[in-house]
Amino acid sequence: MVVCGLACWRCRWLLPLLLGLAIIMGIIALAGRGWLESESEPYVRQASLWESCTRAEGDLNWSCESLMRYGWGRAAAATYLVGFVILVICFALAVIAFSIEILRFNFVRGIGGLLFVVAAFQIIGLVIYPVKYTEEIPLTGDNMFSWAYGFGWASTVVVIGCAFFFCCLPNWEDEVLGNIKPTYYYSSPERAPYLN
C-alpha cells in the first residue's frame, strides 16, 4: 500500500489546489456585500470593500456611497487587490512549477516568499478596513463584520499555510522526486512467533 503524504510526487497538485481555493475565497471577499452588516432587525446597513449602503427602517431601497472617496477605503481596497493579483500570479507559477517533470526547488521557494508578500498585503487591507470604517462612518444599531470579510481572512490563512509549505518543500526534495529507495522490513519465519 502506498502512503501519499505532502512530500509525495503524486500529491504535488495539493498545494496549487489550495491556492485555487484561496483565489475562490478572495473573489468572494472582493465581490461580496457582506463585509459589514446589521446584526439584527431592522437591517439598515450593508457594506462591501467598495461601498457602504444604508436604508431607513421600512424602506426597501438601499442608499449607497462609495468608500473610494475616503483615503483609507482606497488603501484597504488597493492592498487587498494587490495581494489578490499576486496570489493569482503565484497560482499560475505553481501550476507551471508542478507541471515540469524536473521540479525547480528554488523556484518553489520563491513562490513561498511571494505568498508571504500576498499575506502581508491582505492582512494590511483586512486591518485597515474595520479600524477606519468604525472611526470614520457613524454606525447605528448593532453591526457585525460578516461573511465576505470572513472569506477574506480565510483566504489569507490558506495563503499563509501554503507559503510555509512552499518554503519547506525543498527540504524534502529527494522524497518528492523519488530519489530515496524504499526500506523493506522482513522477518524470517523462525522469528515470527517472537514478534507477537
Q: Determine the mean pLDDT.
A: 81
How much of the sequence lies in strands comes to: 5-15%
- The computed structural class is alpha+beta
Morphology? elongated
| Cα-atom radius of gyration | 24 Å
Q: What series of H and E elements makes up the topology?
A: HEEEEHHEHH
The largest sheet is: 5 strands, antiparallel
CATH topology: Butyryl-CoA Dehydrogenase, subunit A, domain 3
Please give the alpha-carbon distance between the first and last residues: 22 Å
Tell me the domain tally. Answer: 1
Would you count the extended β strands for me? 5
Total of helices = 5
> Quaternary arrangement of the chains shown?
single chain
- CATH-scheme architecture: Up-down Bundle
Going across the major beta sheet, what is the strand order?
A: 4-3-2-1-5
Low-confidence segments, ≥5 residues, pLDDT <50?
1-7
Fraction of helical residues: 40-55%
Q: What is the highest CATH level, the class? A: Mainly Alpha
How would you describe the overall organization of this protein?
This protein has five helices and five strands, in the order H-E-E-E-E-H-H-E-H-H. With 196 residues, the chain is of the alpha+beta class. The protein has a single domain, classed as Butyryl-CoA Dehydrogenase, subunit A, domain 3, CATH 1.20.140.150. A hairpin with a 6-residue loop joins strand 1 and strand 2. Helix 1 packs antiparallel against helix 2 and helix 3 runs antiparallel to helix 4. It starts with 13 loop residues before the first helix and ends in a 19-residue tail after the last helix. The N terminus is likely disordered. Its main location: other.
